[in-house]
Amino acid sequence: MTSVLTISAGLSQPSSTRLLADRLSTAVRGEQGEETAVDVVELRDHAHDITDNLLTGFANQRLRQVLELVDGADGLVLTSPVFTASYSGLFKSFVDVVDPESVRYKPVLLAATGGTERHSLVLEHALRPLLSYLRAQPVPTAVYAASADWGNDTELNQRITRAAGELATAVRTEPERVRTDPFDDPVPFEQLFQDTTAH
Predict the structure, then answer these.
(1) Gene3D superfamilies, from UniProt (predicted)?
(2) In 42, 90, 108, 149, which residue has its Cα 20 to 30 A from 53's Cα atom?
(3) Mind listing the pLDDT tens digit for each residue in 108-166?
(4) What are 49-74's pLDDT values in tens digits?
(5) What is the largest CA-CA distance in the chain?
(6) Helix residue spans in 57-174 (DSSP H)
(7) What is the DSSP letter of 134?
(8) SS3 for 51?
(9) Domain span at residue 10?
(10) CATH code at 142?
């Protein structure tokens, strides 16, 4: 069974970002079939945990469970509201505490919500470069939903369906990721000691 994790960085309840996240999750599940588990995580529920991690360098148990879901997922759906022409601070703070190896080469569907269509380029000038920097594999179609899209959303539905199909295909064809544990093959203490005495 494959797994897809949807992250929603919406701040309000109810949230248009969560609404978009749910529609994307449903579309991905429809493309993947019953053999795919799709989980949704609301970052607002972990805002304090994320801040504590940034301040202390350690994830508490609640946040560690979310980070383990990120690591174990075969694909990700990342959704953020647009604030000041970019992703939200909560979204970026979460990305800052994620182990880059957890998303390396992993298929990712990018999505954002905002008040007007003029913010739609945030997907290409902010979100895509961020995930490319982490060496994730964003699918070609990103989904932006402005306030006007919720009234007559035929075009939004088409984008959701296309993006979900791309993520489903990427997850199915993704080669198995092999994670290496640096503690599996430690450097012998004698060698470390020799290296320090050589100077």
Answers:
(1) 3.40.50.360
(2) 108
(3) 999 999 988 878 889 999 999 999 999 999 999 999 999 888 876 788 999 999 999 99
(4) 999 999 999 999 999 999 999 999 99
(5) 71
(6) 61-72, 89-97, 100-103, 122, 128-133, 154-173
(7) T
(8) helix
(9) 2-197
(10) 3.40.50.360
